[in-house]
């Protein structure tokens, strides 16, 4: 079956509190358990806040290291799941069940499959 990455985007500031519809840790644990119970969970992790990010670029042979993310945005990548499902429609259904979907967004991307044969074979 194809694998899809579900990239979880949430507001970088001002996420709703649980009493205002924000996702709780328990909701995320439940969602992960649903993926596992359905046999589609491959991997998933939350990411530390944007302030902990470091960006590396190499330009004209010089390595440039910058604190923070590549670009300033109103949303940040908060985490991801990799699911093994029959098709994009199934991945879309799982994305729509995410605890943060009411105030964030989820980008779905197919995972690339590489041929294991050497390039010069």
List keywords for this structure.
alpha+beta, Alpha-Beta Plaits, two-stranded antiparallel sheet, 18% helix
What do you see in this structure?
It is a single chain. The chain has 121 residues and is α+β, with helices and mostly antiparallel strands. It has a single domain (3-110), classed as Dimeric alpha+beta barrel (Alpha-Beta Plaits). It has 2 helices and 6 strands. It has helices spanning 25-37, 88-96; strands spanning 3-11, 41-46, 54-59, 62-67, 75-84, 105-110. Strands 2-5-1-6 form a 4-stranded antiparallel β-sheet, covered by helices on one side. Strands 3-4 form a two-stranded antiparallel ribbon. A hairpin with a 2-residue loop joins strand 3 (54-59) and strand 4 (62-67).
Q: With helices defined by DSSP (H or I, 4 residues minimum), what is the helix count?
A: 2
Largest sheet: 4 strands, antiparallel
The strand count comes to: 6
Residues in β-strands, percent: 35-45%
On the 0-100 scale, what is the average pLDDT?
Answer: 89
The CATH architecture comes to 2-Layer Sandwich
Q: Measured on Cα atoms, how large is the radius of gyration?
A: 17 Å
Distance N to C terminus: 27 Å
Name the shape in a single word: flat
Helix residue percentage = 10-25%
Q: Identify the CATH class.
A: Alpha Beta
CATH topology: Alpha-Beta Plaits
How many domains?
A: 1
H/E series, N to C?
EHEEEEHE
Structural class: alpha+beta
In CATH terms, the superfamily is Dimeric alpha+beta barrel
What strand line-up does the widest sheet have? 2-5-1-6
Low-confidence segments: none
